[in-house]
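Chapter review: from sequence to fold.
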Amino acid sequence: MTSDAEAAAIGRARKGSSEDFARLVGEHQQAVRGFLRRLLGNHADADDLAQEAFLAAWRKMAEFRGGEDFRAWIMGIAWRKWLTGRRGETRRRARETETWRDAPTQTTDRPDDRLDAAALLGELPDDQRAAVALCLAGGFSHGEAAGILGLPLGTVKSHVARGRARLLELMGGADDAI
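The token string follows.
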């Protein structure tokens, strides 16, 4: 929900006020960075991607409609930036796999790694991980997450339920852990 002060800052930022946009960044950067950290599992990469998302938001600020929730809007930009990067990463991995197809692989599956929250989230499919990160860790409602991810509400609810169940399974069934 947007406060009157935030709505005023949004209005001024839409007209080019970098000071008001900086205020909006300050208010929402932790949520964006936290969401991206849960998706990426890497703080430095998540922080870089958050900067890219805010830069894109600054460029698109004139397009922001006043009745929208700014936090949901910027989260949507961050999600689309992540998806774009993920597609590029998938293409890069495919090229590397093709190049190194015959190279020996080495895997590690230490118990300590299984307990790492980022590693556990990494076990989930992309859309499911994003829904879990937004709803369970980010405090967004299912409806807000659906808007951010561009998915139907029922799909987000399913992703959250299945993601939660999978995380519980990975953690050995500790129902109170999530």
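Two observations follow directly from the output. The longest helix spans residues 70-99. Confidence is low (pLDDT under 50) at residues 96-115.
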